[in-house]
Write a structure and sequence with these properties.
The chain is an alpha+beta fold and 168 residues long. It has five helices and ten strands, in the order βαββββαβααβββαβ. Strands 1, 2, 3, 4, 5, 6, 9 and 10 form an eight-stranded antiparallel sheet that branches. A two-stranded antiparallel sheet has the order 7-8. Strand 2 (25-31) and strand 3 (34-40) form a beta hairpin. The termini are close together.
């Protein structure tokens, strides 16, 4: 298992464009004694309400949404490129249908009972602050709805305070 140490969010060396858009992330939460995760390549990092925050978006049909909604906190795990195939699998198979985490061989670890992946290079431990479902009438560029939401399955956006950043 990797040895993590904590840094301040301002000390992150990678850009969110690289971390989220290129490397992807695992959004992971716990509901009862079960853990579920999904791969995401949309989201962001920034400052809101005087806090360092992460923004993640989840479609209503995603099983992970049930876990995020049931918990006050979740993690974002960033793994290096060697894990891209596993991340692709975790993003395309539902935890409703199979024990997808165990099939990947990835190791679930916990920080204050918040699950994350031990194989990660960077982990953000996040506490939910705000959530809201996207609404069609709020899109100023209608081509976004046409392209990304042909089935009107609008994401819910979660804004979460980054409580800890763990890196290797």
């Amino acid at each position: 298992m990797k040895n993590f140490h904590e840094i301040a969010p301002e000390q992150l060396q990678k850009t969110p464009f690289q971390m989220i858009g290129k490397e992807w992330m695992l959004v992971t939460a716990k509901k009862g004694d079960k853990v579920n995760t999904m791969t995401a390549s949309w989201g962001g990092l920034g400052v809101m309400w005087g806090k360092n925050v992460a923004f993640v978006v989840i479609r209503p049909q995603r099983y992970t949404k049930e876990f995020i909604d049931a918990s006050d906190s979740f993690s974002l795990s960033f793994l290096d490129g060697a894990y891209k195939e596993k991340l692709s699998y975790l993003g395309s198979v539902s935890g409703r249908d199979e024990k997808k985490i165990s099939k990947t061989g990835l190791t679930v670890a916990e920080e204050n009972e918040i699950p994350y992946f031990a194989e990660a290079d960077t982990v953000l431990i996040c506490k939910k602050l705000y959530q809201q479902e996207y609404q069609k009438e709020c899109f100023l560029d209608s081509s976004i709805c046409e392209r990304w939401y042909p089935n009107s399955d609008y994401h819910t956006m979660y804004v979460a305070e980054i409580e800890k950043v763990l890196i290797v």
